[in-house]
Amino acid sequence: MTIAICPGSFDPVTNGHLDIIQRAAEIFDEVIVAVGHNPGKTPFFTVEERITLIKQVIREARLTNVRVDRFHGLQVEYARAQKARVIVKGLRALSDFEYEFQMALTNKKLAPDIETIFMMTANEYSFLSSSMVKEIVFFGGNPDGLVPPAVVTALQKKLEKRGKING
Fold first, then answer.
1. Catalytic residue among 9, 50, 130, 134, which?
2. Is residue 41 among the annotated active site residues?
3. Which of 55, 70, 80, 92 is catalytic?
């Protein structure tokens, strides 16, 4: 049985993320969406909120071989603990490739037994990022088609709670 992890911050999960997760689920026996803490980012949603949203999206997509977990620390250490042999990373643009390539080489040095696989996102999501989605909603834009419906609702509720919807 081949287990793969799809690590990321998923703040929030987008249709681009979902595209990669769905395609990985078709290839691997089990896919773990691993929600990590990125010390270089200030999250909009808590880890718990992100996990809840991703679980809902996965359930709605009927991805029975996908589960959601959290991790802290090195991706390769988490992968080893889960007995995963593969790290799946989605790529949108050349800038993603440069960063992810460096990360993959570092991970290979730390854990030669774990492979990194790059998947190009679908064309319709090649421009999409979680940051862009948050900015669209912050300024009163409509993120339909960019994120799953559950995420649209969660974003709007979070911004209303903070009193920050402009529109």
1. 130
2. yes
3. 92
37-89 confidence digits (pLDDT tens): 877 778 999 999 999 999 999 999 999 999 999 999 999 999 999 999 999 99
The C-alpha atoms of residue 113 and residue 109 are separated, in whole angstroms, by 10
CATH second-level architecture of 3-126? 3-Layer(aba) Sandwich (3.40)
Tell me the CB-side half-sphere exposure of residue 112, using CA atoms within 13 A: 0
Q: Torsion angle, CA of 123/127/128/133, rounded to 10 degrees?
A: -140
Catalytic residue among 37, 41, 59, 157: 41
92 in catalytic set = yes
Let me know if 17 is a catalytic residue: yes
pLDDT band at 102 (very low <50, low <70, confident <90, very high): very high
**Structural domain spans, the chain:** 3-126
CB contact at 8 A, 28 and 3: yes
pLDDT in tens, 107-145: 999 999 999 999 999 999 988 999 999 999 888 899 999
Reply yes or no on whether 130 is catalytic: yes
